[in-house]
UniProtKB/TrEMBL annotation:
Keywords: Methanogenesis, Transferase. Its EC number is 2.8.4.1. Gene3D superfamilies: 3.30.70.470, Methyl-coenzyme M reductase, alpha/beta subunit, C-terminal (1.20.840.10). Residues 195-445 form the Methyl-coenzyme M reductase beta subunit C-terminal domain. Its cofactor is coenzyme F430. Pfam families: MCR_beta, MCR_beta_N. It comes from the Archaea. MCR is a hexamer of two alpha, two beta, and two gamma chains, forming a dimer of heterotrimers. GO terms for molecular function: coenzyme-B sulfoethylthiotransferase activity. This is coenzyme-B sulfoethylthiotransferase. It catalyses: coenzyme B + methyl-coenzyme M = methane + coenzyme M-coenzyme B heterodisulfide. The keyword rRNA-binding does not apply. One of its GO terms (biological process) is methanogenesis.
């Protein structure tokens, strides 16, 4: 493999430079402290929806498995407990039981007037766990104990149903559809493959966590996608590691301002076609591609000696096409069709591979078919990258779906408010690295500039 010393400039969502001449390795999940903090936060997180637990106990609707509605109601198990009103006392009990040392990094935040708790289990407790269930299991059981003790319940007064309000029907079911969740939905029994945990968030979850900020939503989605590639072994070998880091840089973190520049140039009256032409021109101007042959008609066939860098430029162009097209109509439904057209025309216009060597085009053909053609299973925001419709493209599709949903003006039935309301509420207590990933990653990369 040819040795390359990749250096990038990082820009924010307004096109302002954040970090100059940064080694590509400075944004690696293995080195960048902001990305590592994101991963650590996700691994330590648990969310308890106290309002949902209170309502489930009040109605006896316990252990339901439906996505919408409650099919499982148990007459005689109703309990009227003021859980939300006493969230402060319950939070104190949970913190006391899950922390290891009094001054450790345990975090218990009361959200939305006591309706929810956002919790980061202490690192020492998480370190002895074997998987991502560790913080949720410990926090969930602590929450159940806290409710039982605070309201002085016993097996004769209903303590046995508290667990169902928190964990749902688990372990009779492999899912936990009670009041317990985390920053990523991955629950070990439900993840059907290795390296998929960081890909289990719905697109709308990412949109909600970044408050519908398009470029920061794209950044967080791209980071999780490429972290998943490191998790699954897809980034082993220098060639593949560089492939994913370049994709993260140019599509996810607006490296060299490529995405911003193309969007700005096409914002007023651009089309998918004009974005394609600008992507080709930018790649040619930057020396990524060059003309291999000019046919008698004047048509140019291109060549490149750096397919990974070309892929990153194409991924950036694909994102720009989605922002321009879906942004113009303020509707997300056209995101798979936009990706289809962008990739199909671009490969014919250059003679070079499209995004992810055809996997982007192939994935979105299936997505368009099953999301709003014969099947109509859900809108773009309701899919996760781990979904069979999206998982085949390794990191370059989900950020575009996030961008489209950030720009959507309320056309979707499956919108962030419906599917991901919890993330909209807890985003205010999330660490800065989760809410503003572009700036956070750039600042951490700057710290590594002289060391790599």
């Amino acid at each position: 493999m040819k040795e390359r010393n990749d250096v990038i400039d990082l820009y924010d969502e307004k096109g302002d430079m954040l970090a100059e001449a940064i080694p590509l390795q400075a944004i690696s999940p293995l080195r960048n402290q902001a990305i590592r903090e994101m991963i650590k936060t996700i691994k330590r997180s648990a969310i308890i929806n106290l309002k949902k637990a209170e309502q489930a106990l009040k109605t006896g609707a316990l252990g339901s498995e439906m996505g919408v509605g409650e099919e499982c109601q148990i007459p005689g198990c109703e309990m009227d407990l003021d859980i939300v009103a006493n969230a402060g006392a319950i939070a104190e009990m949970i913190k006391k039981w899950i922390q290891v040392d009094e001054d450790d990094d345990t975090v218990v935040e009361i959200v939305d007037g006591g309706e929810m708790l956002f919790i980061l289990a202490p690192t020492k407790r998480v370190d002895v766990g074997s998987d991502l269930a560790n913080p949720r299991v410990n926090v969930g059981i602590a929450a159940a104990h806290a409710i039982i003790e605070y309201f002085n319940l016993s097996p004769f007064s209903g303590s046995e149903v508290i667990k169902a309000a928190i964990f749902g029907r688990y372990p009779q079911s492999i899912t936990t559809k009670g009041a317990l969740s985390g920053l990523i939905p991955a629950w070990p029994p439900t993840v059907d493959g290795v390296g998929l945990n960081f890909r289990t968030n719905m697109v709308n979850d990412i949109v909600a966590m970044t408050n519908k900020n398009t470029m920061n939503g794209v950044a967080l989605s791209s980071i999780l996608e490429h972290v998943a590639m490191f998790d699954s072994g897809d980034a082993i070998h220098p060639a593949y590691e560089r492939y994913h880091l370049l994709g993260l840089a140019y599509q996810g973190l607006n490296a060299n301002n490529v995405v911003y520049d193309i969007v700005k140039a096409n914002g007023a009256d651009g089309t998918i076609g004009s974005v394609i032409m600008d992507t080709i021109k930018r790649a040619e101007d930057d020396g990524v591609i060059s003309v291999k042959e000019t046919l008698p008609s004047g048509f140019k066939i291109y060549k490149t000696d750096d397919a990974s860098l070309w892929n990153s430029y194409v991924a950036a162009g694909q994102l720009a096409a989605v922002i321009v097209n879906c942004g113009a109509m303020r509707a997300a439904q056209g995101v798979p069709a936009t990706i289809n057209e962008f990739n199909d025309i671009l490969k014919l216009a250059t003679g070079l591979p499209d995004v992810d060597y055809g996997r982007g085009l192939g994935t979105t053909i299936g997505t368009a078919f099953y999301s709003h053609n014969i099947y109509g299973g859900a809108g773009p925001g309701a899919f996760s990258p781990a979904n069979p419709l999206l998982r085949h493209c390794r990191g370059f599709i989900s950020p575009c779906f996030v961008a489209a949903m950030c720009l959507d003006a309320g056309t979707q039935m499956f919108n962030p408010e419906l599917t991901s309301g919890a993330f909209l509420k807890i985003r205010t207590v999330l660490p800065e690295v989760m809410r503003n990933p572009i700036k956070s990653v750039a600042e951490s990369a700057l710290e590594l500039k002289g060391a790599l």
